[in-house]
Amino acid sequence: MDDEDALDIRQRALRRKERRLYSCASIEQLLETEASSFRKRRSSSFDTQCFGVDPVKDRDKTFLNAMAITLFEDESRLGRMHVQPVIKCECNGVESYALINTAATVSSISMKLVEKLRLTDQIIPDTTSKSIALGLPHPEVKGKVKYLDLTLGNWQQVSQFCVVEDAVPEITFGVDFLRKTQAIVNLEDSSLTIGGQQGERVPFLTTREVIMLTRTANDSRS
Fold first, then answer.
1. Which InterPro entries does this one have (predicted)?
2. Are residues 100 and 66 in the same domain?
3. Quick one: DSSP state of residue 174?
4. What is the domain count for the chain?
5. What is the pTM of this model?
């Protein structure tokens, strides 16, 4: 065997070794490569360092880094991520829709629906505190109406609401309502359960239904 053949054999052996090393690449290296790819595609300004992850110094946490980028990526494929939870209900026998808003301290009803129910003469002065919790804006309250027959599925109860300007949906369930009814907001199966674990389950509207509701409201305003 001459020197040229020996050199060729050594080169082939080196190539086989490189292929074996590549196929046995560590999971940390693969995750780091995937995370780098996510960073290039990311359109938001979310900083993954807030999770306390340093992909250089702490490679064991690279998966968490990649997960954070995916979770907060603007182009999310989760259909309901940007759709607010809205449910169908009845108020004094009239079909309506209610927004579940855990940022609202009190539940409200729009003046338009109050007029539709012919309850304007039953509006009483509101004594609710005007303080703004957590610095969140609060709609101007025009008064309060009591003794509204509220129906959610098979669940019925007499309720009261603060009256606000026109809103879509026309009813908002705030923290006061959710606490009194022991309601459970389940984002996993898109539903609201009234009356605890064994209570009445009311499904959220689908994305299509929420879009149609918004369009109908906008058309009626124009």
1. Peptidase_aspartic_DDI1-type (IPR019103), Peptidase_aspartic_dom_sf (IPR021109)
2. no
3. -
4. 2
5. 0.63
Q: Are strands 94-100 and 108-110 parallel, antiparallel or unpaired?
A: unpaired
Do 62 and 106 reside in the same domain of the chain? no
Which of residues 27, 47, 71 is at a domain's end? 71
44 and 117 share one domain: no
- Choose the final residue of a domain: 29, 45, 71: 71
Task: Please write the tens of the pLDDT for every residue from 123-151.
Answer: 998 866 555 566 566 778 889 999 999 99
H-only helix segments in 45-129: 62-71, 111-116
* pLDDT at site 3: 60
The CA distance from 68 to 65, in Å, is 5
Q: How confident is the model at residue 37 (pLDDT cuts 50, 70, 90)?
A: low
Which residues face 172 on adjacent strands?
99, 108
Which range among 46-55, 128-137, 191-200 shows the weakest confidence by mean pLDDT? Answer: 46-55
Range of the domain at 182: 86-221
- Confirm if 152 and 202 have CB atoms less than 8 A apart: yes
Three-state DSSP at 201 gives strand
Q: Specify if 160 maps to a domain.
A: yes
Same domain, 54 and 114: no
Q: Which residues contact 152 (CB under 8 A, 6 or more apart)?
A: 87, 89, 90, 192, 194, 200, 202
Q: Are residues 26 and 91 in the same domain?
A: no
Task: Determine, yes or no, domain membership for 81.
Answer: no
Distance, CA of 185 to CA of 80 (rounded, Å):
14
pLDDT at 73 over 90: no
Tokens representing 171 are: 């009813």
